[in-house]
Structures are given as C-alpha cells and as structure tokens.
Specification:
alpha/beta, Glutaredoxin, FAD/NAD(P)-binding domain, seven-stranded mixed beta sheet, six-stranded mixed beta sheet
Length: 422
C-alpha cells in the first residue's frame, strides 16, 4: 500500500490497471476504523489491485474534482476510469470485498479467498462494542485478571469520538475533546490487558452459544457476553439521502465541518446533538440554516440560547425535509412547512443530519426482551433475558444516556461477572 499526492494521480491512478484509492482525514474516527481493513485487504488483493491512500486535507482540489465530500471515501478505478460504486463513512470490510471481487475474474477471487484460514479463539468474557460502557467493563475485568476480548466494527470510542467537546465528564476542569477522552479510555483498557479485535465485520452473533464470527473467518467463543453496541444516527429515508450520503450529506460534524469553511450548510434536527453540533459547525461555515419539525428546539436551554444568539444561524421551525438533490456543486434541500403544507427549497454546500439515534441490535434483536423503543431490558446487574448475557450503555432501556451512565453500567456488569467467575 502506498500514499500519494495529487501530483501522482495521473501516473499512479489513471495510468494504472486496477486501483482503489482511500481519501482519508485526520481527527476522523471512521477513517481510523477503515484503515486496518484497507491494509489487511491490501495484503490479500494487492497483487491484483493497487491500494493507494491520499490525505484529503492536503489534496482538497483533487478531492472536490472527484466529488469526494466526506472522509473516508474509497474510489475504485479500472484502466483510469472511475467505477460508479464509491464507499464512504462507516465502511464495512464486506462492502470493500464485494467491490474488489467485482473487479477480478471469479477464478482469481476464489484463489484469493482460499488463502483465508478459519480460526477459533476462546475467552472468559466477550464485550461487543467499544464505547465508554464497553471500555469500562473491559478495564474492570482485566484488572480482575479475567481473560477478556473487546470486539467492535470500528475503532474504540463509540459516539464520544464524534463529539467535539465534553464539558461534564468528572475530573476534568476544562472541556475535553471527545476523541481525546475516548482515546484515553481506550488506551487505559488496552494497557491493562484486554484483547482488542476492532475495525472488524461482525457477521454472526449466537447469544445462546456465546459465539461470534468476525470478518467471516474467525469464530470467538466466551463464557459470558456483554453487549455494548451503542446507537447509530437515525436516517430520514427520503429521496436523495442514500445517494448523497458522504457526498454532501454528513452525520458527523467532527469529521466534516472543517471542509465547509466560509460555506453555507443546512443542519436538520433540534435536539441536543443538532444544536451543539451546529454551534461547532458555525466555527467554520458562513451560514447555517436549522430545519426542525417542532416550534422550538428540544435541546437544553443553555445550548439553545447560545445557538439562537449566533448571527450565522437561521432557523426554520415546524419544517421537515422531503428530499435532496445535487445541482452542480450544491445540495438543494426541499422542505415542507408543516402548517401550510407548502414546500420550498434551500440551496447549500452541504447538509448535516442529527435526528436522534437507534440501538445497534440488528443481529440479535429477536433474541432479547426489548422495551417499546427497541432498547434492551436489563436488571440491576445489567443481566439481559438470556443467561450469561449482559448489556450496558446507550443500547439498554433507561431514562438517561450519557457518557457517565454508560461508564456506570459497564462498572456494574463487570463487577457482577467478576464475582460469578471468581
């Protein structure tokens, strides 16, 4: 795998046979998550497809000319021609493999995959998810000398890493960058001795057997499981959203706000995340239009007052987006006035979406007792409805979801498990 700059693009990409090019950025959790997947696949496919990386922040003109609007973005080329399929944001290893396989003869694909050897690993405790809850559980368990593995489809951090500042975590007088707080949590747990298997694809979860398959070739077994898979941003499911995701529509201000210096953006939502992230985006953008379905924001009063006093921010209350369309290098957002039922359009350089979260339980939702909103029910020791399976953090049914409450959940589950395994 090789890193290039814009000056190398003609020779390394356009004059080459088959290429996959990764546009990455710094301070970008999704970029960090895809990096080990990209490197691992380069070892498998590298003799047939050239794997290249390029630093987006120092090659913005090239990125923009290729329609790259978010980090990371993977572009695929054959004989100098860009293929229509691009990948961006939280990229799964299986999605990369699917695209790489499509570029090669079937016989060669079979030959490459024959080099993958299945394996089995066994531990006392398996933690699914490396946010604050999972990391804290891992820390307590490894300090109790319990053989623990931590599995995540991204790098350790959870939602914390996409929060630009955390001002209410005990022990820090000054607000902490979210990525730094999560990094310190991760390093503490890693140095303690918890085994990390992160930036992987989880293709199968059997809670009854306590088995998980990652990256389609490694089976991990444990005596107990802690589910700490957290939540993901809700999608609107309206025309243009899927097509423009990562190409003008973003769900991470920390990752992408810096690319909208002196530009105009639309922020959709009105809760704490939308209001706080809009304030952060205003450090870069020249104008922000907030689109919110209710007559007032639902964020905490202090955050509301700060945003409403920001001269860069315009608000459209009682409006909802109905579709997105790219026109030239702009994004046109169609919105509906919920009172008059009339529609209008907003032209901007980009759109940020913050409309709440949903629990990440797709692989095992039908196996557990859930509340009305789809969150996992637990008892006071964080036990779920399945024996030897626990759950902690934002994924469980509870009134408040904060970093501190996730840390508390992880502590409780780990202590309960340690006593049982003692």
């Amino acid at each position: 795998m090789k890193e290039i700059s814009a000056s190398d693009f003609q020779v390394e990409v356009l004059d080459a046979d088959r290429v996959v090019l990764d546009f990455y950025s710094t301070e970008c959790p999704p970029c960090e998550a895809v990096a080990p997947k990209f490197e691992g696949l380069a070892n498998l496919y590298g003799n047939d497809i050239k794997f290249l990386k390029i630093f987006r922040q120092e090659n913005r003109q090239l990125a923009e000319s290729l329609g790259v609007k978010s980090s990371p973005t993977l572009l695929f080329f054959e004989k100098g021609v860009p293929l229509p399929q691009t990948l961006s944001g939280g990229i799964k290893r299986s999605d990369i493999i699917h695209q790489l396989d499509s570029m090669l003869p079937e016989a060669r694909v079979r030959e490459i995959k024959s080099q993958i050897t299945p394996s089995v690993s066994e531990y006392d405790v398996m933690i699914l998810g490396a946010g604050p809850g999972g990391l804290t559980a891992g820390l307590y368990l490894c300090q109790a000398k319990i053989n623990t593995v931590l599995i995540d489809i991204a790098l350790p951090s959870g939602q914390v890493s996409t929060t630009h500042e955390v001002s209410n975590y005990p022990g820090f007088i000054e607000p902490q960058p979210g990525y730094m707080l999560s990094h310190n949590m991760s390093e503490q747990t890693k140095l303690c001795g918890t085994v990390y298997k992160v930036a992987v694809d989880v293709s199968q979860v059997d809670l009854e057997k306590k088995e998980v398959v990652i990256d389609e070739f490694e089976t991990i077994k444990a005596k107990k499981i802690i589910i700490a898979t957290g939540t993901s941003p809700n999608l609107m499911g309206i025309p243009g959203e899927k097509e423009l995701k990562g190409k003008g529509i973003s769900y991470c201000a920390t990752c992408d706000a810096k690319y909208y210096g002196d530009k105009e953006v639309v922020v959709i939502g009105g809760g704490n995340s939308a209001v706080e992230e809009a304030d952060f985006i205003s450090k870069f953008a020249s104008k922000i239009t907030m689109v919110h379905q209710f007559a007032s924001f639902t964020a905490n009063k202090q955050a509301q007052e700060k945003l409403l006093a920001n001269k860069k921010v315009k608000t459209l209350f009682e409006h909802e987006p109905r579709g997105f369309e790219r026109v030239g290098d702009k994004i046109v957002t169609t919105v509906e006035n919920l009172n008059t039922k009339t529609t209008s359009t907003i032209t901007s350089d980009g759109v940020f979406v913050f409309i709440g979260m949903k629990p990440n339980i797709d692989l095992f939702a039908d196996k557990l007792k859930l509340d009305t909103w789809g969150y996992i029910k637990t008892d006071e020791d964080m036990r779920t409805s399945i024996y030897d399976v626990y759950a902690v953090g934002d994924v469980i049914s509870k009134k408040y979801r904060q970093i501190t409450t996730a840390v508390a959940d992880g502590t409780i589950a780990a202590i309960a498990i340690a006593k049982e395994l003692d």
